[in-house]
Amino acid sequence: MSALSPGTQGLRWKTAGESHGPVLVAFLEGLPAGFRIDFDAVRNELKRRWEGHGRGLRASFEKDELHVLAGLKGGVTLGSPLCFSLTNSDARIDTLPNLKAPRPGHVDLAGILRHKSRDMRAQLERASARETAARTALGAICRQLLAVFEIQVSGRVLSVAGIPGEQVETWHAAIDAAKASGDSLGGTLEVRAHGCPPGLGGFAQPVDRLDARLMAALASIPAVKGVGIGAGMAAGDVPGSLFHDPIVLDPSGWAGLGRSSNHAGGIEGGLTNGQEILLQAAVKPLPTMRKGIASVDLENMTAAKATYERSDVCVIEAAVVVAEALLCLELASALCARLGAVTVREMLVRFQELGKNESPADWPSDTAGLD
Q1: Would 251 be classed as within a structural domain?
Q2: Residue 257: inside a domain, yes or no?
Q3: Is the pLDDT score of 3 beyond 70?
Q4: Burial bucket for residue 353 (CB in 10 Å: 0-12, 13-18, 19+)
């Protein structure tokens, strides 16, 4: 356990619970005291996660009932750990049957090879994307904290099965066709953050780098197989003179400076640079399909089709909501670490001292002048 204060470390969070267990539980430590949380807004984000073309049967009955367990007084944070639960409407973990043939692309086979037990449900229940409901709620709370500092996060679908996101009717039709044939589809998404001050993140240690933390956060979403920041993989296709973002004088920019492009995606050297943060993620087709795919019945070791479990056809719109939540979580953590999250009032005072309206020409030319 680190001796650093929550304000120095930023936020820490954990979740617990299984897809068909009684509840999901979320724990968030490091929020400042004096922060009033709008839980109706949190519930709206949970509802958004269930929306989208291609969602399965569970979206029609799962309610995500939220119960705060600790950390509040009169709806306002105390500075102590916040804990809440989300009730599962479908809580049949003890009676659901085991899978006979593992699904390629899911945790099924890798999990049983690890445990040396054919009980696939022992792994898949926790590895399920159901867990992202808890992180969506955590991110919704952090979105509200970011809003206090006028930082906004948004996201959108870039493509579905190669079809551009703007062609909504076309990719809706593709999802319908996949559902009819018992198949599944993936896609790509984008998330952005506007209004972040420069200097969030770090470079003293590799794990401090905000770009690494953001990409890891998006990669932690089940089904995400690729993440990019700024120009992403295209960064390797052009010379440096065309890739790097020229620094220009900009009276409206932070400290009177700006950029004429944003190929870096708002982060350089592990730190935010005042530009818009931009990330993309590729979401694979879901591994559970009615039509099945080649697998092996592990009880008698014969060829078989992968076992089918109730599932979605496409989750790209839900993945956008989760990606937004994780971007909010990481940015709020970096902001709390930068400002020292003891109280909201202290954070606001320190935010005003970050130098937005100052000129670098007035700053010391040597760190010795910072004492």
Answers
A1: no
A2: no
A3: no
A4: exposed
Q: Pick from 216, 273, 217: which is nearest to 244 by CA?
A: 273
| Residue of 233, 252, 251 lying closest to 243 (CA atoms) | 233
Domain tally for the chain?
Answer: 1
Which residues constitute the domain of residue 51? 6-230+265-352
In a domain, 72, yes or no: yes
Distance, in Å, from the CA atom of 371 to the CA atom of 368, rounded to the nearest integer, reads: 6
| Mean pLDDT taken over the chain | 94
Closest CA to 222 of 339, 350, 59, 107: 107
Q: From residue 227, give the alpha-carbon distance in Å to each of 56, 184, 188.
A: 25, 21, 10
Query: Is 34 buried (19+), middle (13-18) or exposed (0-12) by CB count in 10 A?
Result: middle
* CA–CA dist 112, 132 (Å, integer): 23
CATH assignment at residue 136: 3.60.150.10
Q: Is 50 a domain residue? A: yes
Whether residue 305 contacts residue 101, with contact meaning beta carbons closer than 8 Å, is answered with yes
Residues 6 or more apart whose CB falls under 8 angstroms from that of 150 comprise: 195
**pLDDT bucket at 61, cuts 50 / 70 / 90:** confident
Q: Give the pLDDT of residue 321.
A: 98
- Angle at Cα 359 formed by Cα 356 and Cα 365, nearest 5°? 120
